[in-house]
Amino acid sequence: MDLTVIATASIIGASFAIAFGTALTNLGEGMVAKQAVASIAQQPDEANQIRSTAFVTIAMIESCSIYSLLVSMILLFANPFWNYAIAQAAKAAA
Using CA atoms, how far apart are residues 6 and 70, in angstroms rounded to an integer? Predict the structure, then answer.
């Protein structure tokens, strides 16, 4: 495999990981916030419990975005396919 193909695929994969990972988690966080505000409006006495539950839920949703960032960093800086491609190129040169 050509190294430029691996580099291009890595950059495109990292871009999609960040784009979809952050977009979908932001939509999820918005839905949680919308429901939390609606619930607090209906039951103001339970506002503290609803707020703390919403914060924990948003933190769990945000972990998906962090995983997307981790996948993109691995693809860009610690790509496992680079060593294989370099070894294949060395075999072809020899």
Answer: 18
* pTM for this prediction: 0.74
- What whole-number distance in Å separates Cα of residue 60 and Cα of residue 24? 13
Residue with tokens 């948003």: 58
pLDDT at 55: 95
CATH number for the domain that contains residue 20: 1.20.20.10
pLDDT digits (tens, 9 = 90+) for 39-76: 999 999 999 999 999 999 999 999 999 999 999 999 88
Number of compact structural domains in the chain: 1
Structural domain contains residue 57: yes
* Amino acid in position 68: S
Range of the domain at 51: 3-84
